[in-house]
Amino acid sequence: MLDKKIEKAYNDQINAEFWSAYLYLSMSAWFQKENMPGFANWMYVQYQEENTHAQKFFRYVNERGGTVVLQPIAKVQTSWKSATDAFKDTLEHERKVTAMINNLVDIAKEVKDHASVSFLNWYVDEQVEEEANAESLLQTLEKIEKKAPGAMYMLDKELQARTFVDATLTPAE
Ligand code: FEO
Questions:
Q1: Does 129 reside within a domain?
Q2: How far is the CA of 21 from the centre of ligand 1 (A)?
Q3: Residues near ligand 1 with C-beta < 6 Å?
Q4: Is position 96 within any domain?
Q5: Would the pTM of this model clear 0.70, i.e. be above it?
Q6: Is residue 169 part of a domain?
C-alpha cells in the first residue's frame, strides 16, 4: 500500500512528466516550422522519452496498489527566439525536474518507503543524463552562435540521427 503523501507526489510527477512531453513536442513543432528537422527530431525523441517517464510512474503506482489520478496538462509555450533560447528553457526545465525527483526521494525517506527509494534511483540517474544532454547541446549552440553560424546546418544533420530507445523497460518487461 502506498502512503498517501507519496501517492500524491507520484501523481503530480506523472503530470509533470506529461507536461515535459508536451513542452518538447511543442519545441519539436517549432523547430520543424523553423526548417530545422534534426532539432525537431531530437525534440520528438525527447517527447517520447518523457512519455515513458510518465508511464513508468503510472505502472509503479498501480503496482504498489495506489490510485493514479490523471490531472489536466497545462498549456505550453509555442515559440522561441532561437535554438539557443529553446535549449536554455530545456536545461532550466530539466533542473526543475531534477529538484522534483529529489523531493520525491526525500518524501520516500520521510515515509520510510524503501521500495520507492530504490525505484526512484532510476530517475535520479536519468536526470544526470537529461541535464548533461541539454547542457552539452546548449554549450555547442552558444559557441556556434558566436563563432560559426554556418555550423548550424551540420549540427542539425547530426541531431537527425537520434533515435528513441525505451530505457524504462528492462529486458524482463
Ligand atoms: Fe522526465 Fe526530462 O525528465
A1: yes
A2: 8
A3: 17, 20, 50, 53, 94, 97, 130
A4: yes
A5: yes
A6: no
Which ligand 1 atom minimizes the distance to the CA of 130? 2
Q: What is the CATH number of the domain that holds 96?
A: 1.20.1260.10
Residue 11: which H helix or E strand, with range? helix 4-33
Nearest CA to ligand 1 atom 1: 50
Number of structural domains the chain divides into: 1
Contact 104, 120 (CB under 8 A): yes
In ligand 1, the atom with minimum distance to the C-alpha of 50 is: 1
Domain limits for position 25: 4-159
Is residue 164 one of the residues assigned to a domain?
no
Q: What is the pLDDT of residues 13-59, one digit of tens each?
A: 999 999 999 999 999 999 999 999 999 999 999 999 999 999 999 99
> Per residue, what are the HEC states of the chain?
CCCHHHHHHHHHHHHHHHHHHHHHHHHHHHHHHCCCHHHHHHHHHHHHHHHHHHHHHHHHHHHCCCCCCCCCCCCCCCCCCCHHHHHHHHHHHHHHHHHHHHHHHHHHHHCCCHHHHHHHHHHHHHHHHHHHHHHHHHHHHHHHHHHCHHHHHHHHHHHCCCCCCCCCCCCCC
pLDDT of the residue at 148: 82
DSSP letter at 80?
-
